[in-house]
Amino acid sequence: MSPSDRRVVAVAAYAENRVIGDHGRIPWHIPDDFAHFKSLTLGHTLVMGRLTFDSIGRPLPGRRTIVVTRSPDWGAEGVEVVHSVPDALELAATYDGDTIVSGGTQIYAAAMPALTHQVLTEVHRVVDGDAHYPEFDLSEWRETRRVSRPDLDWVWWERTR
Fold first, then answer.
1. 102 burial class (0-12, 13-18, 19+ CB within 10 angstroms)?
2. Which terminus of the chain has fewer Cβ atoms in its 10 Å neighbourhood, N or C?
3. Backbone φ, ψ for residue 2 (5° rounding)
4. Per-domain residue ranges of the chain
5. Are 68 and 107 in contact (CB under 8 A)?
6. Cα angle vertex 34, ends 86, 58, to 5°?
7. Mean per-residue pLDDT for 85-95?
8. CATH topology of domain 3-159
9. Which long-range contacts link 76-80 to residues 24+ away (Cβ below 8 Å)?
10. CA 72 from centre of chain
């Protein structure tokens, strides 16, 4: 796979007010969306921040995990540690499969310029939270697919420029 064919994909679920988390937890429980996340990410490389990793508590099976942290002493079994999003994306590009950016807020925002795709779950509710999915310029993206469910929409986006 050539560098121009590499996909860097943000995968996130957010509420109508763009909330993705509240004090290290997801403020809803939708099993179908967890299964959707698993199907999108199995066999690929996850890039996430340390707080997101801590909220999960372990590396997810079937996926390589790269954790971004500013802490020079932090480490966890079964993950690779880097200290910036560009370093994470560079490392992830050396592995087969897609690079999946999986949170949190600062990681999504820092990776946004490098993203080629987004797969976003729009959760049909407003919730309180302290972490949000960043705004993105819709003129740079094309919606390629949408699957609507009563409680959510799964939306696939592809960068156009």
1. buried
2. C
3. -80, 160
4. 3-159
5. yes
6. 60
7. 98
8. Dihydrofolate Reductase, subunit A (3.40.430)
9. 79/53
10. 23
Contact assessment for residue 66 and residue 47, using Cβ atoms and an 8 Å cutoff: yes
SS (H, E, C) the chain: CCHHHCCEEEEEEEECCCEEEECCECCCCCHHHHHHHHHHHCCCEEEEEHHHHHHHCCCCCCCEEEEECCCCCCCCCCCEEECCHHHHHHHHCCCCCCEEECCCHHHHHHHHHHCCEEEEEEECCCCCCCEECCCCCHHHEEEEEEEECCCEEEEEEEECC
> Is a pLDDT exceeding 80 seen at residue 67?
yes
Rg (CA), the chain: 15
Rounded CA-CA distance 44/58 in Å is 16
> Is 44 in contact with 157 (CB distance < 8 Å)?
no
For residues 82 and 89, what is the distance between their CA atoms, to the nearest angstrom?
A: 10
Pairing assessment for the beta strands 45-49 and 99-101 based on DSSP bridges: parallel
Query: Across residues 114-131, what is the average pLDDT?
Result: 98
